[in-house]
Amino acid sequence: MASFKGYVISKTLMPDPLGNKLIKIDIVEERENPGPIVTGGDESAMMAREVMNMMQQVLKSMPLLNQALGNKVLIPRITIWLTDDEIEYFGGKLDVGDYVEVTLQNGVIGIKRI
User: Fold this and answer.
1) How far is CA 79 from CA 3, 16, 87, in A?
2) Domain with CATH 2.40.50.140 in the chain
3) Which of 31, 57, 87, 104 is least crowded, fewest Cβ atoms below 10 Å from its Cβ?
4) What is the pTM of this model?
């Protein structure tokens, strides 16, 4: 079984080509921002890596600045299209901002609000 946790970031009502209503639900996973990557093997690249590590530590120590710069990135994970009838069978509505767990097991995708 595989699983991940994420947030519902959008819920959109759209018509399909036949005039029926479809509800599009987007779920994203929030991960730590890896920060800048310095490549190269020479001395200047090694020095740049050390300076970047120090800068990251300084930025992490400043909570307000850290929030403004955003230390997390949103990774799109799953988009679901449901009809009005299907959303009823889904067992409760998902709203924007809900924290959910998505599980994958034996060819079945499960989504539950946490």
Assistant:
1) 15, 16, 14
2) 1-32+73-114
3) 57
4) 0.68
